[in-house]
Write a structure and sequence with these properties.
binds ligand FJE, RmlC-like_jellyroll, metal-binding, nucleus, globular, 25 strands, 293 residues, binds fe (iii) ion, Jelly Rolls
């Protein structure tokens, strides 16, 4: 094996911090493993929250608002039906993605689509001060529209950004990469990441060696915060498949004021947002009498 292949990066990213996502209750009876947005890892600019969720009816995420950021929901098993206060409604199923820009305001419900257990990942990405109050927008990608490549035992689904020469059609207002990798036993991966972006891994299944070859394998439901650098290397030295998402984003470097599902830059903007929501103003107009069905 060539030296180049062992370390193709000038400044390889290493695992700087490892956080186990433990189960907690959220919404109405739903269970989430919160990786980002917990005391050990309150946020990782531009990311505000990462939940690995599991919902079984009647549990779900009934009517609630958002302002000032984007939510990305990626289904791993089953489906979630969303309904919002502007009459938009849809179901995303295994492998589908909903990239929702809450902007100035969305009120919606996110509920399991049918019996059984429904699983996925929800990521919250902050918007810059300049874009917090933009019109809400949805980008929905069906599983078959997500660029997928496979090479030497490595499969990638490019949900945002680019990998293995493939580009996602998703428009990211805050520049973001979101890659879903599966490595067969014995496979290795070397993925470039823009140098100054914050990046992390969430291990979904199996165990992998991240950063450099000599590291201890890391098991599922850990968040691995990567140091800065030009890329990350991963090895699957186990006898089972390894699945993880690699997520990176350009930091906004702006002040963050958060009150639950409202994320602004200052406390006075948060107080304004609470009033807007309460009085159904400035983007929350449709919320006056709306209830999900
Ligand atoms: C929310 C409580 C919540 N993680 N993962 C408070 F439960 C939520 C919320 C979610 C959520 C929804 C899905 Cl589909 C998946 C989630 C939290 O809806 F937004 C606040 N503020
Ligand atoms: Fe929501």
């Amino acid at each position: 094996m060539s030296v180049l292949h062992q370390c193709p990066f000038n400044s390889p990213r290493l695992v700087m911090n490892k956080v186990l996502s433990k189960s907690q209750h959220e919404g109405d009876g739903a269970v989430v493993r919160r990786g980002i947005g917990r005391s050990e890892l309150p946020r990782l600019d531009p990311f505000l929250m990462l939940d690995y969720f599991s919902v079984t009816p009647p549990a779900g995420f009934p009517d609630h608002p958002h302002r000032g950021f984007e939510t990305v929901t990626y289904m791993l098993q089953g489906g979630i039906t969303h309904q919002d206060f502007a009459g938009r409604k849809g179901t995303i199923r295994t492998g589908d993605v909903q990239w929702m820009t809450a902007g100035r305001g969305i009120v919606h419900s996110e509920m399991p689509a049918g019996a059984g257990t429904h699983k996925g990942i929800q990521l919250w990405i902050n918007l810059s001060a300049r874009e917090k109050m933009i019109e809400p927008n949805y980008q929905e990608l069906l599983s078959e529209d997500i660029p997928t490549a496979e090479e030497d035992g490595v499969e990638v689904k490019v949900i945002a950004g680019e990998s293995m020469g493939l580009h996602s059609p998703v428009y990211t207002r805050t520049p973001t990469m979101f890659l879903d990798f599966t490595l067969n036993p014995g496979a290795e991966l070397h993925q470039t990441i823009p140098h100054s972006w914050n990046a992390f891994v969430y291990v979904i299944d199996g165990e992998g060696v991240f950063g450099f070859q000599g590291c201890t394998p890391i098991t599922s439901h850990h968040v691995l915060v990567l140091s800065l650098g030009d890329g990350v290397s991963v090895w699957n030295k186990s006898s089972n498949a390894l699945r993880f998402v690699l997520i990176g984003g350009q930091p906004l470097n702006e002040p963050v004021a958060q009150y639950g599902p409202f994320v602004m830059n200052t406390q006075s903007e948060i107080e304004k947002t609470i009033q807007d929501y309460h009085y159904s103003k400035n983007g929350f107009e449709n919320g006056k009498s709306w209830r999900s069905q």
